[in-house]
Design goal:
alpha/beta, 5-stranded mixed beta sheet, 5 helices, 41% helix, globular
Amino acid sequence: MADLVSILLKLGSKLGFEVATEVEASKGAWIDVVWFDSRFKPSSLDLPKPSKTRRYPVLPVVGFEIEGSVDSKQIKGSVTNLDVLSPIMGIIVLRRSNLDIVRKKTEKYRHKSDDELWKLIVNKVYRWVYAEAQPKTRIVIMTENEVLKWAEKADVNL
């Protein structure tokens, strides 16, 4: 199976966006994957790698932060990074590895199904995002499986 970053890049390209990885939104804010409005072509600006969006006339539409081990501090950091980027929408993608981490950490979750556990994790992350971090930009929480289904429906070659 392809790497999640590669899938997001292929999906963004398929949907007509200019795509980039490790985009610098500020000196300390790096975004895993960004989909840019193709009318403001980052590729035509000869941007340095990694891209420094704060210095160029580009329009980030969607920013993705990929989280492999969820805790409140990491999530709040991702929200801050996405706020600095200021995309129309930010998406925090929770990797499947979070299921194993939660099962190992907490005895009462060891025998829960993946679906039950995802509901608990996603609800907790939403609380961290909206009750605590209070983003300025719209943030969506997705699981790795949801991204894979999205790519599959868009007929992205995985």
